[in-house]
Design goal:
Helices cover 68% and strands 0% of the residues. It is mainly alpha-helical. The longest helix is centred in the N-terminal third of the chain and has 32 residues. The N and C termini lie far apart (49 Å).
Length: 234
């Protein structure tokens, strides 16, 4: 009996139902993508419990034994990832950035896509800061759309890689959080990370919209302090 409420028959039935007009070769491609998604979910499930085990003092040797790999392999496989301390809203903005790249048929995720992702998450502080400064979500969206590369010929399936400057912005987001003494990485920190990569498309867009790195950092600092104080009053 499977420990999960899922079976191979269920997976086959769902794929066939969702792709009724596709031929067998197309279904192979889709099955491969779904298998990768299941594999990724499995890795995330293991990562969750590895993190829990580390919190209660388990060693990498013990964790490796539990997984069935060496201590070194466990460390390499389950070392903290670039989105380890990202908030749920910020993780969602990254997903939206990937989908923006896919929608525009781009073969990589640029800083402009990250900016679109932030704009697509209205509950995030980055969205509030962007709209408060420009007084219009559409103005920001139009500026991003104008800076986007031409659409490609075919939308990519599966993973879409980050461009080098996008990876740098993601690293700068973590640095921005650390500079402000925050133990989380929110959408506001991603916004700060974007403007720090000075020659990136997103930084150019933000500067054209009237943002500066110092002003943006102070705005984020003030907004977060205000929010934390408000929580303390309740």
């Amino acid at each position: 009996m499977s420990p999960l409420d899922i079976s191979l028959a269920d997976l086959i039935a769902r794929l066939d139902e969702e792709l009724p007009e596709s031929d067998e070769l197309a279904r192979i491609s889709e099955a491969r993508l779904r298998a990768q998604t299941l594999s990724d979910l499995g890795d995330q499930l293991i990562d969750h419990y590895v993190s829990k085990a580390k919190q209660v003092g388990a060693s990498w040797t013990e964790i490796g034994d539990a997984i069935g790999v060496s201590k070194q392999a466990a460390q390499q496989r389950h070392a903290p990832g670039p989105f380890e301390r990202y908030t749920n809203l910020n993780r969602h903005s990254i997903v939206l950035a990937q989908e923006a790249a896919r929608t525009h048929k781009h073969d990589s995720i640029g800083t402009e896509h990250l900016l679109l992702g932030l704009l697509g998450e209205p509950k995030g502080l980055a969205y509030e800061v962007l709209v408060a400064k420009t007084e219009s979500e559409q103005r920001v969206r139009d500026a991003i759309e104008e800076a986007l590369p031409p659409a490609g010929e075919k939308a990519l399936r599966g993973h879409i890689p980050f461009r080098p400057e996008t990876k740098e912005a993601i690293g700068q987001a973590r640095s921005a959080a650390a500079d402000l003494g925050h133990d989380w990485v929110g959408t506001e920190h991603t916004l700060l990370g974007l403007i720090r990569v000075e020659e990136s498309p997103a930084a150019l867009i933000l500067r054209d919209l009237g943002f500066t790195p110092d002003e943006l950092k102070e705005t984020v600092r003030t907004e977060i302090a205000t929010r934390l104080a408000a929580r303390g009053e309740h």
